[in-house]
Amino acid sequence: MSGDNIQHNIQKARELIAGAANICVLTGAGISQESGVPTFRGEDGLWRQYRAEELATPEAFYKDPKLVWEWYDSRREIISKAKPNPAHYALAELEEKTPAFSLITQNIDGLHRLAGSKNIVEIHGNIWQTRCTLTGVVEENHDVPLKELPPKCAETGELARPNVVWFGEMIPAAVIDQCLNFIESCELMLIIGTSALVQPAASMGVAAKQRGKPVIELNLDPTPNTGFYDISLQGKAGEILPQIV
Ligand code: APR
To answer: I need a surface site. Which of 101, 117, 143, 201 has the fewest CB within 10 A?
Structure first.
């Protein structure tokens, strides 16, 4: 994309955002890439080093909970050193100045909350939470490294699991409904840093378009949905987002 075309699209995006009183944002791993958190499918992607089905599934966990927790412990270590980047702060600022604002994130790193975002739905869970495999009770756990592998639920002493959504697991229906309500009520949708390959997040922008909402995509690379949206900005979120909010 040529320079003046990018500038033209940035200006168009800025105007759309400034004129919207209700904005719904969807983010993926790309928004945390400049904070040093590896994405899943990029050059440095996690799935290039590990096989998702060997680690991020209920079967893998119950076959070898220690191995899966060792992987999450190493990711917690990396994420504990990560700080929000200008893209995270730009969204927190946008939320402050927009009458209605919702943030749907696929990220489990907690960086949006650290940057000051408030109305967040973490549809894939949160790496700083554990969930009791017996009772489902969720506990915050920020120990780096974890004190024991695998960790146990403080209340029941039973095996605890990461409070994240694995491949083959469903996102709770209430969470999906909340996302659909955000999409239904927004005037504009902003989709940042996601490869649009994993459902249901990959269909949320399409759902917004089907409801007549303009959609702006900001991503380092083109995605399967790129041609479908009103504006697609190709570049780094940390560089472009501060220019459009
Ligand atoms: N700025 C903007 N976009 C970026 C940047 C950046 N600095 N760096 C990378 N990207 C883009 C890449 O081009 C890629 O399209 O971010 C996207 C990241 O895609 P994925 O690694 O597939 O991450 P994501 O879309 O969030 O994956 C969805 O898949 O494995 C599951 O649960 C996991 O939540 C994750 C889900």
So the answer is: 143
Look up the domain containing 24 and give its range. 1-36+84-124+171-245
Residues 2 and 71 in one domain: no
Confidence band for 2, pLDDT divided at 50, 70 and 90: low
Chain segment 162-177, per-residue pLDDT in tens: 999 999 999 999 999 9
CA dihedral 225, 229, 232, 236 (to 10 degrees): -60
- Phi/psi of residue 133, each to 5°? -75, -15
pTM over 0.90, yes/no? yes
Q: Which residue owns the Cα nearest ligand 1 atom 28?
A: 198
Total number of domains constituting the chain:
2
Task: Write b or e for each residue in 76-100: b if 16 or more Cβ atoms lie within 10 A of its Cβ, otherwise e.
Answer: beebeebebbbbbbbbbbbbeebee
Share of the chain above pLDDT 90, in %: 92
> With a 6 A CB cut-off, is 200 part of the ligand 1 pocket?
no
Cα–Cα distance measured from residue 134 to residue 219, given in angstroms and rounded to the nearest whole number:
40
| 124 a catalytic residue | yes
